[in-house]
Amino acid sequence: MTMTLISPAFADGELIPETYTRMGENLMPALKWTGAPEGVKSFALIVEDPDAPRGVFRHCGVFNIPRDWSELPQSSDTAPGGGPSFCRNDFGNSRYDGPEPPKGHGPHRYRFCLAALEVPSLAVPAVAGIEAMWNMAQKHILSQATLTGTYEQA
């Protein structure tokens, strides 16, 4: 079975509602997944914008998501449900920060990538950024699922 990632807030390839952007309420959209492989011991998630002017911009990194979870709720908290940990994003915050592409830069894609890991936790320093966490996670991935939304600031 292939792992899939969905959100009730937007469909794959569709527009992310303003509520989930920095121009709106900056809430992290709810995410749900199915098809986690056998042997999964935890999950990690990143949200990144590959269309940013200076290269990939990372909006959110969540790790040590318990293996028995199959969703993350809509949230403005730094740690939804008190379980997983957030790492520092490219805005310098340890939380979700939604889309905020430059005005007139055209539509940007926002990739939500969920990884099922073969380890129960990642020992990521509190000051570590998303890239460091994701590089650590890459060594332990059993399966991955991606959901892509778009956003443009006219």
From TrEMBL:
It comes from the Bacteria. Transmembrane segments: none annotated. Keywords: Protein kinase inhibitor. Signal peptide: none annotated. One of its GO terms (molecular function) is protein kinase inhibitor activity. The keyword Signal does not apply. Residues 71-103 are annotated as: Disordered. CDD domains: PEBP_bact_arch. The keyword Glycoprotein does not apply. This is YbhB/YbcL family Raf kinase inhibitor-like protein.
